[in-house]
Each structure stands twice: as C-alpha cells, then as structure tokens.
Design goal:
Blueprint: H1 4-15, H2 21-33, H3 35-54, H4 61-74
Helix pairs in contact: 1-2, 1-3, 2-3
Length: 75
C-alpha cells in the first residue's frame, strides 16, 4: 500500500491528467482503506471544479513585468 503522502501526490497528478493507470489503481486502493485521504481527494476535486468554473488564469510573463514596472513607478 502507498503512503498518504504518495496518495496526495497521485491525487494531484490525477486532477491534471498526469497520473498513470497504475498510479490511479494504487490511489483507488488507498482511498478504499484511508478515509482521511478519501476526504482530501473529494475536497481537492471540488476545488478543481470551482477553479475551472471561475475561469481563473495566471498572468503571462509580459503581464507580470508590466505590473512590476507599474508598482515600482508608483512607489
């Protein structure tokens, strides 16, 4: 059986479509046994869905530089 730390890593990989079939299988088995990790996975999935609905995005490097320049200019 995998550790809870490993389960959390696989859970995150699964959210982003990066987990292998074997990782998913190991995670499913772990979640069947560990209720704490099962609750974490449910909350993590809910958070991912909410972030997708919110249409969140990160700033591009160009946007970051522009913001940094504006902050330095206003200081």
């Amino acid at each position: 059986m995998i550790s809870c730390d490993k389960a959390a890593i696989i859970c995150n990989k699964t959210q982003y479509g990066e987990a292998s079939f074997m990782d998913k299988l190991k995670l499913k088995f772990h979640l069947f046994i560990c209720k704490t990790c099962s609750a974490f996975t449910k909350k993590n999935t809910k958070l991912t869905v909410l972030c997708e609905k919110a249409n969140l995005h990160a700033l591009s490097e160009k946007e970051k530089l522009k913001m940094k320049e504006q902050l330095q200019h206003n200081s």
